[in-house]
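Work Package 3 (structural annotation) set out to generate three-dimensional models for the target panel prioritized at the project kickoff. During this period the team completed the workflow that converts sequence records into discrete structure tokens, so that structures can be stored uniformly alongside our sequence database. As a representative example, we reproduce one entry of 673 residues exactly as it appears in the project archive.
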Amino acid sequence: MAKKLAIVLALAFLVLLAGCQQEASPEERLQAYIEQWNNGEFSEMYSSYLNQGTKEAYASEDFVERQQKLYEDLAIENVEVTYTEPGEDAEWDTENPADFPIQVKMDTMAGPVEFEKTMTLLFETQEDTEDWFVEWDPSFIFEQLETGDEVRVSTTDAERGEILDRNEQPIAINGTGYNIGVVPGNFTEESAKEELAEILEISVAAIDEKMGQSWVQEDQFVPISKAAKNDTELLEKVEAIPGATYQETAMREYPYGEALGHLSGYIGPITAEKLEELEDQGYTSTDSIGRRGLEQTLEDRLHGTKGLKILIKKQGDNGEELTIAETPAENGETVVLTIDAELQKSTFDSMEGEAGTSAAVDPETGETLALVSSPAYDPNEYMLGISESRFKELSEDPLNPLFNRFGAAYAPGSTIKPVTAAIGMEAGTLDPAEGLQIDGATWQKDSSWGDYRVTRLHPEAPNPINLNKALVYSDNIYFARQALQMGNEALVSGLQSYGFGEEIPFALELQSSQISNEGALGSEGQLADTSFGQGQMLTNILHLASMYEPFLTDGIMYKPLLFMDEEKSQVWKEGLLSAESAETLRSGMRNVVVDGYAQSANSPSVKIAGKTGTAELKGAIGDEGQENGFFVAYDSESPDFILAMMIESIEDNDGSDYVAGFAAQVFEEYGAE
């Protein structure tokens, strides 16, 4: 019995001894602590590893909650803490501290942070446990951080990238405008407030709200609204109001205004919805963002990256700030377009505010030199925050200046005839020298066509009608008969070889050109209509300009380009027609201007060649009887660019020759340079 009691007592003593004995070496404890640190287990670190003196100096919220918040606010991740292992002969004395060099690495929103420190472990008893415990202070968060210091983030705005034309003329730049405002001490008349509200198209209450801000002083300028640099009429009205004035301020500028409005687009304040989508990319509620056109398309390239800096504001009166991590601001790119802004403006101005669209391309490179939608809006108005009345005015304008026409597609009318001829010559069914006997103003193959007949505008054209005459007189019957001769399959495949039915390989989204709604031709009547650009055929204006390139390049059509840093002369289509056929069409298109019905383009200073076209809109496409006029042309002696132009509703303006006159102005202006 005594022997059993002795065993029990011995076991009890061992249990008691185990409860008070050292559980691990300081290195083992450090390893465990570092593992918790790397995993962000701050609660466990505080409760199980910190020594008593640290816990007395720092409450749980000073250790756990603060580090958790810093990790979240500063986007701290990839924390990697290591230590320098002691030598093999290292011995630990519980009466003395155990010191270990540690290395701390982490990634933050402002860049990487690295530092080295010495971590000390002390041997002590906590409750019933004797062990090694970590001595801690805030410098283990950041090396320079001390008790009472504050950690904050500073941001530096990136400069938005600019958009320039091929000659580095400004299209969208970081320029200047004006803050319109008042000096309260001088702005005391109620009538003046009402007058300012009226010209700014805001309420008197809105002015009072601005003037009632807590920082406002009697002699201090108070911004109320903004104005573009070129809005001289508004600025003059402001100057006439006692106490009202304006001050220059940094502002996005669009120097070419309406002429490039649809292409440049504009920026505006970021919406709450967009901010939620882009917040992780550094956007804030005060940022502006591209809202239309290239400003929107190029947002990723133009926006840039804000600079970030993590700072420690030291305690004390001097308020010294130390930089912990810094990523400098990265300004947005400067994007240079292939667009010639002066050619664009000349083209826009030549259209005289008529509804329509134009495109110009370099036939040797595929570079887009102009891309016009008329009429248009002034992006400066939108960037400043367009008034409700002005937006209503634009929205209700019957010419629809808010609609981007160069992105759409239209029935091309007779401008497609050179393409039809090229397809027929390559198929071997169209001999340009062979004349057809064509009599009368209408024609049908046979009675199976029912009421459908092909109509031509110039029945006086002398027989026989060969290709040259068919181009000069724009003879629909000739091209319909040639289409029937080549057949459905040959015309469809030929049009497809020119890019019909496929996505236009361009930097901006453009409506594709189509042969028909289904991509096929369902009848001989539709085949005939399609040969002269009617039926269900639609073309995009830029694609139409590109389709004339093979007539100047002996069969090559280049990918349309928009950026100067793109490789030039990228072949999109090739082998479209022979050099002989191309020469035949060039000769015919010069004769269209000299001998045909594009006399408004028969300039004495520029030898213009091209093809007119008139497309009657039917059904859902437009009002019955409305006609769109086209002219696609180039300088036959110096074909630096091909210009395709379309003007809507030319039925009361002598047909497509009206458009040829507009286009001729562009060539004459550039031919004179």
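The CA atoms of residues 9 and 15 lie 10 Å apart.
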